[in-house]
Design brief:
Elements: H1 2-6, E1 18-22, H2 26-32, E2 35-41, E3 47-51, E4 62-63, E5 68-70, E6 75-81, E7 92-95, H3 98-101, E8 103-105, E9 110-111, E10 119-122, E11 133-136, E12 142-149, E13 153-163, E14 187-192, E15 199-204, E16 214-220, E17 227-234, E18 242-252
Antiparallel strand pairs: 1-2, 2-5, 3-4, 3-6, 6-7, 8-18, 9-12, 10-11, 12-17, 13-16, 13-18, 14-15, 14-17
């Protein structure tokens, strides 16, 4: 990594970076007021050290030895270090505020049943610099927010991106799953309890020729019991641009 940096190459350090995993669901953590978090790296190389006081971790910070249990609102910062005290990657942080626990980014959404998220695509084609990227399934414009705490959340905002559709599928076109559109440019359909559950909101998509490639939709959620998947489906035609969820934020009742 040092050699890459000296050469001016912005190489990904994700294999050596600390990843954070919650044991159980986020709804469980919110209900109990305790967030159990496991820290790990892909390579297992180095000693993970962390802080809970907002400071960046150093080679003298506390070494990670067992899963942590913190109150919602604590920010965990962590990095792995070599035996001579060098960080193996940039420190990563994990926020445990109630709002953060109720938010899912594109990377935290999952494929709908019988689907697979296999591509990570940029916001714009021909990009020459770092730009937002989205995990997508080009065969099915459907993703899920897994295990949403419907007994906690009462509303939501969904940030949506319109992406170029540059896919020559040829014989694979038969694998496309089409969703019936009601309005001219299609809709975003939000369902609770999975992709066959009741509709919580339908939001018409704007004219691609005259609207920005990012948009936000807001809606309410029916009160539920415990955790359930939220299904997000775009019904735009296969000849239209491709739509993806950038993030979904669940909102608690004020």
């Amino acid at each position: 990594m040092g050699r890459y940096a000296r050469a001016g190459i912005a190489a990904a350090d994700s294999a050596f970076a600390v990843d954070f995993t919650i044991a159980g669901t986020r709804g469980d953590a919110l209900r109990r007021g305790k967030v159990p978090v496991t820290l790990a790296t892909q390579t297992g190389y180095g000693t993970i050290r962390y802080t809970l006081d907002g400071k960046l971790p150093t080679a003298r910070s506390k070494a990670y030895a067992a899963p942590l249990s913190v109150k919602p609102g604590v920010t965990i910062r962590a990095a792995a270090f070599t035996t001579d005290g060098r960080p193996t990657a940039e420190p990563r942080l994990f926020e445990t505020s109630r709002a953060a626990l109720l938010r899912r980014s594109s990377s935290e959404l999952v494929a709908c049943p019988d689907g697979a998220i296999g591509l990570r695509v940029p916001l714009t084609s021909e990009a020459t610099a770092n730009t937002p990227v989205f995990n997508v399934n080009i065969f099915d414009t459907c993703t899920m927010y897994p295990a949403a705490p419907l007994d906690v959340a009462r509303g939501f905002t969904v940030d949506v991106a319109r992406l170029p559709r540059h896919y020559g599928l040829a014989h694979d076109e038969k694998a496309l799953r089409r969703h019936y559109a009601v309005t001219t440019y299609g809709e975003l359909v939000v369902r609770t309890g999975g992709c066959t559950g009741p509709v919580a909101g339908t939001f018409p998509l704007p004219n691609p020729a005259t609207s920005p490639n990012r948009m936000t939709f807001r809606g309410t959620l029916p009160q539920g019991k415990g955790d359930a998947d939220i299904c997000l489906t775009f019904t735009a035609s296969m000849e239209s641009p491709f739509y993806a969820v950038r993030s979904m934020q669940l909102l608690e009742k004020k």
